Amino acid sequence: MERGLLELHLHAVSFLFIERELFTSKTLVKLTLSTGYDFEAERVFLPALKSLYLLIDSGIDYDNHCRLLDGCPALEELFIRDADHDCPPCCGSVVKSASIKRLVVLVNLPNKRDSHDYAYFEAPSLVYLDYSSYVYETYQIVGLDSLVEARLSLKIWDYYDYNYDYEYDDESGDYYFSSSDDEGRSYCYSYVDDERKEPIFGDVTNLVAGITNITTLHLAPDSLEAFYFCCESMPVFNKLLNLFIESNKDKGWQGMPLLLKSCPILHTLVFKGLVHRVTNKCGDACACIPKKEKRENEKKNRKIVEKQLSCLWTCQVKVLEISKYDGSFQELKQMGHLLGKLGCLESVKVGVHADNNTEFLQANLLALPRLSSKCNNIQFS
């Protein structure tokens, strides 16, 4: 340290007390702490540190975590991995820094639901956020007004024995409906046994409301479900220009209609795959809405009535990009749905897998009718 060390990567497999000189370096610019257990630091002052990587396999306690961040006044980049251990989340639950501009947080503790009660983020200089975690019970977001780009992977807890309101979808013969109690908590009921289910844990309302100044948003497949089930109200993204959606055949698009309605100046819409879990909550965003059915349950004398939501007719998207396109019937139907309802489209780009019959796929897509008169061509790659 006396020679002016600029970069240090430290890994420990057991309890470690770090010498004070390490955390009072005037020259250190990049520091990685990768631990299999706890570590302590009596005093921290790293005035030159720009990048900090916390790869925690066991857990750094709250006091040491706060002491570490407070002692880095010039920190610009913070990467936190709080995963694969048996301790409650710590580093990924609280981030407070006046200087950081880029923040990457990964919290993966699927067996610690009860410890995900509160998350706090305060970073007035932050311009980029990459956040992946199971949803917390509540979030407090302070001063993210400078944020420009966000990547969210918000996972719903899998403690439940039902399929999260996948009512009336194509993979289940059972039917469900939702209700609320006097405190506003949502429940799902099954037509099979009418048993009240456990409320879905977590609320991302404050998290979503805290990032409304962004111009670019990337959503992992789980996030649309979290928006639908764990967000009490969708804020308006008045500055959002670019929206990237990653799809997965096991995850639904329930949050898509309300999200698109909340992006009044959206310019570019990008899908990484179009195949997703079909539910009756995708609304007008999806061409795969299950056919209207009305079935009376003789015992309960109830009917299922499908309510369609419209979100594409008023969407201002001018650029539509699709990657991982295989040309399946569901994908072609979805493309026809998008082209036939997005009235402001000017450019369409489709990425086709090289091992597919490219000419056949292109011919099918080019034959689809388009609502927008300005959409004269489809580019393939």
UniProtKB/TrEMBL annotation:
Lineage: superkingdom: Eukaryota
Domain FBD: 310-381
InterPro entries assigned: FBD, FBL60-like
PANTHER family assigned: RNI-LIKE SUPERFAMILY PROTEIN
Protein name: FBD domain
Origin species: Arabidopsis suecica
